[in-house]
Here is the input.
Amino acid sequence: MLTREENELICRVGPGTAMGAFLREYWIPAFRAAGLEADGAPRRVRLLGENFIAFRATDGRVGFFDEGCPHRCTSLALARNEDNALTCIFHGWKIDVSGKVIEVPSEPPERRAEFAAKVRVRHYPVREAGGVIWVYLGQRETPPKFYNFEFNLTPTSYGMAQRAVMHCNWIQGLEAVLDSAHLGILHTSWLRKSSGSTALSMVDTGPLFETVMKPYGFREAALRNMGDGTFYGRIREVVLPYYSFIPNDSPLPQFLICATPIDDEWTAQWYFHYYPDRPMDDEMRKYRDRGHSGDWDNFCSDMGDGNNLWRQDRKAMKEGHWTGITQCLHYEDFAVEESMGPIVDRTREYLGASDTIIIRVRRMLLSAVREHQRSGKLAFGADQEVDYSKVRAVAIRFSPKDFNWKETDFTDRGAVVPLV
Ligand code: FES
Ligand SMILES: [Fe+2]
Here is the structure.
């Protein structure tokens, strides 16, 4: 349970809010890079309660500006995109890809140069990696080091970024992913359909949880006793403020989820699938395509909403499906998250032992945002030299006598022989 003030503090992300200022300090996955064509249409982007546009210039560079033209706020989504610059269609002001105003044809010719030099365009540093355009919306002259996540380092053909838009606050998205307790309940029908190692999760339904704190968040293992001297360990990594690396059994691709705020009441839930060492194959495509709408900018667009109870099928429930949400496993998550309302009232909760991780993450976020408010200090590794390329979730079977999961570097695949 949180107080009303605490709930407001962690949920609200718009301009002028404490959490908004804090999250703007971190590189954010803004949108899928696919489809952003050189000299093509600028793309509207809403993040943290603000509207931006991004465009690919003639030479391939990406510009990221506030949406409103600096003159009188006409949307630059309407602008002409040519000659490595955007030109507002209203009075022809031209802004180059670096955010410099280079032409103001609406001014008298003799003062154009001087006038243009004075106009400030709010523009932001971007990176293109992992099939995604990332942006830094913070105030610092030099942004924190860019995330060298493994999927940001591999060629884009090795993976795939998908995004789903949910009508709820970003903390609801984050908490649903952190919550391990729901796996065997909410998703029970999907798990029953799966085979192989998922069955191992059913052998011991009361796993032991162990955690190791890291500068960026923590590593958490769900350890299940297989009854033969071995353990099945599902080890995930949480990189705050919002990334969860989820274990997948071989030969499935690496997988992570993050929930980024579009605004207080809307969230982009990102799914990244990738192989560290080889291009996407049919296995990944199969995995990727399971039951989604096919629109990778919003893959849950066919999910339904509160008005039709997310297309819950009562007949399927009578026939044995646990949730009646039969399109795909992820929609079960999204439906429960949205069903709490746009911003859940956390003063009304009864938290139990299974909510330990959620309680911990709330405390970590609250303490980081308060410290940032007080001193401007960054958290979660952004102020340190962290090698994010080593962050990897794994599913392993091992004997605790001769294997210590807490000390194993899982990027060295040779060190992890007992992969399931
Ligand atoms: S509003 Fe854009 S040039 Fe006038
Ligand atoms: Fe789930």
